Amino acid sequence: MLENGLRILSMSRGQVPLVSACLVIDAGESRTATGREGIAVLTGDALHGGTEDRTASELAEELERLGTGLAVSTSWDATTIRFTCVAERVGEVLDLLAEVVRTPVFPQDELETTRQQRLASIRQRKMDPGSLADDELDRRVFGPDHPYGRPLAGSEESISSIVRDDSATFASRYYSPTGGGLVLVGDLSEGQVATLAQERFLDWSAGDGTRGEVPKARGPESRSVVIVDRPGAVQSELRIGQPAPRRGHPDEIPLRVSNAVLGGAFTSRLNVSLREKHGFTYGARSSFAFRRDGGDFMIRTAVQTEVTAA
What we know:
By secondary structure, the chain is α+β, with helices and mostly antiparallel strands. Helices cover 36% and strands 20% of the residues. The protein has a five-stranded mixed beta sheet with strand order 1-5-2-4-3. Strand 7 (281-289) and strand 8 form a beta hairpin. It starts with 6 loop residues before the first strand and ends in a 6-residue tail after the last strand.
């Protein structure tokens, strides 16, 4: 671990001259304040917009020259930036990675392009029966006032209200080494990893954001059946769910194993029954979402409308 709190993890694998890296930042969507839903996702998407030293085009050209790209994703718990490159260029790519997370500028035109892409995705989600079912289950399991009870990427209203300064403020507060980690796997020695990390991240200072307490999910007070009408749909999307333990719970591994038997694989009991035995569906699965502040258990499938009740 570096003195600023950034944890460094590495594994040496020299079979091929490649390195894969992942920077994890404690800047997930659960940090979002009311009225700013989706800002963590939007800010992460906008990281490709440029830095204090490079425009978006210059950044893209440099990554292309190095034969790699930065894949940014934001979950409830964290924002992650990943890349894979040839081992001899890992230092140069880490330079770019450090530049992107430490000095983003979020130009208005680039942010607006990212916003329109995100709004299009939200509108598309409203037309998809499966997404409607997922969102409704989250509202029922966690409640409308819980962060997990809303869509991860926010709403049209919240995304439309976010301006450039909002993303810049979010990044300055939460894009920091505190609670984060850098993972490197590939054709590198432990000594090389230490040098690479120290040279690029040792002087990275902590942000000023503190993590608020996420309330515990209470779940529905009683068992209920909820029907969401999607006119014209030729299938029924079915969801069953309830609150589940957080990530790191003592029973996490036994639950993962038992779920593999129930519905976590193609050969599990749910799929064998509903697909192979009855022919109701192309697939039925179950899963646990283990998050830092709690999660849920979900069973999901899509069936032809006429066999919904069966």
